[in-house]
Write a structure and sequence with these properties.
This protein is α/β, with parallel strands linked by helices. It contains eleven helices and nine strands.
Length: 306
């Protein structure tokens, strides 16, 4: 039975996905300024070029440039996230996992097939599997952790080894793949597709969404956590100031000004939530929606493959 059918049967689909779009999670603190003068994102690209932060670069180069950024931050990945979000990324990720509430239900015979794309650190993948086990006693569902960057995947594997869980586990596979194509992932094979703070780095975001649709089974769910657009003018002012300071913080904390500058700019270039919702629908998903978190600093987006 499809994961979304299970949710529907348990009454979970409506409560978990029909979320008030206007109500941010309160209690999370504002962390950074993301609004810029240009929020056009992918729409302003032409056929040969795309953006890399605020620079326009040949599309053929972006993948390599993004690779350099994440290879550079891989070993200090937690530091990067904590600096960028003042630690709030952990709360966002917990909320993301709890709200999705995925796992093989006791009344189901079928384990779930998860894929976490751009999942290098393993944060989301391990969190999802832990949730499934703790809440539903599910020790059968399996996980593909996919990332374009082998250095980031190595960090995830290192974490699995250090925590003594999910390393050399037949249920968990780490795979170097471009999320835009997922060449080694069969069509209609996954129940749950997650991507957290990854999709804004894709050269072609729409291709990534189309591929998410391809690999999901009918009834499968696309679930995405990504920086978004602040929806409160006062918070936005603070936020913009913070985004100016971030590369300097990156330089002090991780000796890496350029990577942090790229990360700030990549957030500014990401489409507005309504635009991104339209892209999810364009890929073929139904019931698309989103929930802004922390005044829209970040948002959860979803869509169902019918
Ligand atoms: C900010 S990290 C997020 C890691 C993790 N999902 C998390 O939430 O902690 C962004 C990740 O996206 C990956 N990435 C960027 N472009 C990608 C692509 N086209 N396909 C797959 N992964 C990609 C990077 O290598 C990096 O590991």
């Amino acid at each position: 039975m499809a994961f979304t059918e299970l949710l529907k049967n348990s009454g979970k689909l409506t409560s978990s996905l029909k979320v008030s779009l206007s109500k941010p999670l309160i209690g999370y603190r504002c962390v950074r300024a993301l609004h810029s003068t240009s929020n056009l994102g992918v729409q302003e690209e032409n056929l040969e070029t795309t953006h890399f932060g605020s620079r326009t670069v040949p599309k053929s180069e972006k993948e390599k440039l993004v690779g350099t950024v994440f290879s550079s931050v891989a070993s200090k990945y937690d530091v990067m996230n904590d600096v960028m979000s003042m630690g709030v990324h952990r709360l966002w990720k917990d909320h993301f996992i709890n709200k999705l509430d995925a796992g093989k239900r006791p009344n189901s015979k079928e384990p779930l097939h998860f894929i976490d794309v751009a999942g290098g650190s393993g944060d989301i993948a391990f969190g999802l599997l832990d949730h499934a086990e703790h809440k539903f006693h599910d020790k059968e569902s399996d996980m593909h952790i996919v990332d374009i960057n082998a250095d980031m995947l190595k960090e995830g594997e290192k974490r699995a080894m250090n925590q003594g869980k999910y390393f050399n586990d037949p249920r968990v596979k780490f795979l170097v793949q471009n999320g835009e194509t997922l060449d080694e992932i069969e069509s209609n094979s996954k129940d749950v597709y997650t991507v957290s703070f990854g999709i804004r780095n894709f050269t072609n975001i729409q291709a990534g969404l189309n591929t998410a649709y391809r690999v999901l089974k009918p009834g499968g769910i696309f679930y995405c956590l990504e920086f978004s657009k602040v929806n409160n003018p006062i918070v936005d002012t603070v936020y913009q100031q913070w985004s100016k300071v971030l590369p300097v913080m990156g330089s002090l904390v991780a000796n890496d000004y350029d990577s942090y500058q790229y990360l700030v700019e990549s957030i500014q270039k990401f489409p507005e939530p309504e635009t991104f919702k339209g892209m999810i629908e364009k890929a073929g998903f139904q019931s698309a929606g989103y929930e802004p978190l922390t005044f829209g600093v970040c948002a959860i987006h979803w869509g169902i493959k019918t």
